[in-house]
From TrEMBL:
The keyword Transcription regulation applies. Residues 47-66 bind DNA. InterPro entries: Homeodomain-like_sf, HTH-type_TetR-like_transc_reg, HTH_TetR, Tet_transcr_reg_TetR-rel_C_sf, TetR_SbtR-like_C. SUPFAM superfamilies: Homeodomain-like, Tetracyclin repressor-like, C-terminal domain. This is TetR/AcrR family transcriptional regulator. Transmembrane segments: none annotated.
Length: 230
């Protein structure tokens, strides 16, 4: 007996639709993974075509999934931003506001060193990315509150401003594995830099503090004194 085509066609159509959805999801994940790797190493200015090549998809496929660079950047860094906000929330729950303040600075700088694109994404304006901006605003309000608490406790110098965290990130951003010689040396240099900065932020410098992390083996490059180096 011949099969009823009216029963076979819907099933075949459903299978094809499922395959298309699975393919689309795989392409989306490949694009996000490729963008995450590229942004971490080269920052946010990586050409979209380069990300498509790294993902093994066409540029048209990339733009179908992410019509703008903003939509791709905010999707890539959504988890990191959520982690950053969680770090601030945990610090606010710490009964010691100075310890909470130090924890935020240390952890955010570690996150920055691991992913160079995150700081640029955090400091950029994305007017169409409502959820991303809401999460960032939450983290910023939390750090503002943590700053006030540490100052009211007499532990953080009164002239520190929450915007000074940007200066910390700019300084830490100058530490790269290429300049330091290795990822391990860069991490050591970052820890020592952050420790120096946190000491300068203390309102009570006379209070005993733990020793600095060991010096980083990054070498020293003296500027040349003239065209010939003489």
């Amino acid at each position: 007996m011949a099969a009823d085509s009216s029963q076979i066609a819907p099933a075949a159509s459903a299978d094809a639709s499922d395959r298309l959805r699975a393919d689309a999801e795989r392409n989306r994940n490949r694009i996000l993974d490729a963008a995450r790797e590229a942004f971490a190493v080269r920052g946010l200015d990586v050409p979209m075509a380069a990300i498509a090549r790294r993902a093994g998809v066409g540029v048209a496929t990339l733009y179908r999934r992410f019509p703008t660079r903003e939509s791709l950047v905010t999707e890539v860094f959504a988890d990191q931003l959520a982690s950053c906000a969680a770090v601030v929330d945990e610090a606010l729950a710490d009964p010691d506001p100075w310890r909470g303040f130090c924890t935020v600075v240390e952890k955010v700088c570690r996150m920055q060193l691991a992913d160079r694109g995150f700081t640029a994404a955090f400091l950029s304006e994305f007017p169409d990315a409502v959820d991303f901006d809401r999460q960032r605003a939450h983290a910023e309000r939390g750090f503002d509150a943590l700053t006030r608490r540490a100052q009211e406790a007499g532990r953080l110098r009164a002239d520190f401003h929450p915007d000074d965290l940007t200066l910390v990130l700019m300084a830490n951003d100058g530490i790269t594995a290429e300049a330091a010689g290795s990822a391990e040396a860069a991490a050591a240099a970052s820890r020592r830099l952050v420790a120096f900065l946190l000491r300068s932020f203390r309102a009570t410098p006379s209070v005993p503090v733990p020793p600095l992390p060991p010096p980083a083996a990054v070498g020293l490059c003296w500027p040349k004194s003239g065209p010939s180096g003489a």
